[in-house]
Design goal:
By secondary structure, this protein is α/β, with parallel strands linked by helices. 31% of the residues lie in helices and 14% in strands. Strand 5, helix 5 and strand 6 form a beta-alpha-beta unit.
Length: 329
């Protein structure tokens, strides 16, 4: 069992840092052992933790990922929100509160992107202010959640990305009073489809097939890599820069995101390749995947990431043979 910072938001921010961005998670990390692991892991990749301890502190949410192989030998994974040892529920997600607004708002000017996946009144207030300051608001909902907050988020977001397997469609994404310029619907192994109105008029749906992966070990986190790749190519210059993007560049950015997703499938864990490759190797391998000629290196098993238990507050730490654990923000 190994432990890493994770979750959609944690993965996207860590990958963006890996790609050379400055990224700042807004979170309520306490001083528990899981939070210490999260901090160590994010610091390893250069993620800035200036706003990671917003009040009030909360237990670090933990989710367990187990990787297995089906009868056909294909890898599959499943998630659990219960401790594999004692069976008690592990700490769950706690949204940032209004206390985060005052702590974070001063750092929003100059930001290129504001990313959100789980909604709260505070996150929407910060997103609105970030948009006012010229940032691209990227929204990747994991579930429908509160209908009022969802409606507000869809009106604010410039880029909306969601998985067809979780949300078949989102009403209001491209409505006349929404800020959305690009809507991306991922289709798993079938690729993705998208529509945009960067030129002012709404395009039809366009489909891109998936990029073949040279090795299939684990698909977990590949959607997060796709998001980070798209953001890195389209949103570096903020909302004004996004409006200058033309159709071919949108497709190139989406294809780059898909290529990162295909690369990630060759490693175990949501960001396993980051621990196996130096940046130069990563760039060469991604370029080779785009050409269809990639061979991926074996993934080492770092000793420093091994853990005996997933920081369950309900049971004492003892040796365990549980599945791989990821710790989401």
């Amino acid at each position: 069992m190994r432990a890493y910072a994770g979750g959609t938001c944690g993965n996207v921010l860590a990958v963006l840092a890996y790609l050379g961005w400055e990224s700042f998670p807004v979170a309520r990390l306490s001083e528990d052992s899981a939070a210490q692991r999260v901090r160590r892991d994010l610091k390893r990749w250069g993620v800035r933790l200036d706003y990671s301890a917003c009040a009030p502190p909360a237990d670090t949410p933990i989710i367990v990922q187990e990787i297995r192989r089906g009868r056909d030998g294909a890898p599959t994974h499943r998630f659990s929100w219960a401790c594999p040892r004692c069976g008690q529920w592990l700490p769950g997600f706690k949204a940032v509160t209004r206390a985060a607004i005052e702590a974070v708002a001063g750092g929003l000017p100059g930001s290129s992107v504001f990313f959100m996946d789980r909604l709260s009144r505070a996150s929407l207030t910060l997103a609105e202010e970030a948009a006012r300051q010229g940032a691209v608001v990227v929204f990747e909902p994991c579930a429908k959640g509160d209908s009022r907050l969802m409606a507000e988020a869809l009106k604010l977001a410039h880029v909306v990305k969601y998985a067809n397997s979780r949300l078949k469609g989102l009403v209001g994404v491209m409505s006349h009073d929404a800020a959305t310029l690009l809507e991306i619907q991922t289709l798993g192994s079938a690729g993705l489809r998208y529509r945009e109105r960067l030129s002012g008029s709404l395009s039809s749906w366009r489909k891109l097939p998936a990029v073949p992966t040279p090795r299939l070990i684990d698909t977990c986190g590949s959607g997060d890599w796709c998001t980070a790749g798209v953001v890195s190519r389209l949103a570096a210059a903020g909302a004004d820069g996004l409006l200058e993007i033309e159709g071919e560049a949108v497709e190139d950015a989406l294809r780059y995101g898909q290529t990162l997703a295909a690369w990630n499938c060759g490693f175990e864990g949501a960001r396993g390749g980051m621990y196996a490759c130096e940046t130069a190797q990563f760039e060469a391998q991604v370029a080779a995947i785009a050409r269809g000629t990639a061979e991926l290196p074996a993934q080492p098993v770092p000793r420093e990431d091994a853990v005996s238990e997933p920081s369950c507050p309900a049971c004492a730490p003892v040796a365990s043979s549980a599945a791989h654990a990821a710790i989401p923000m």
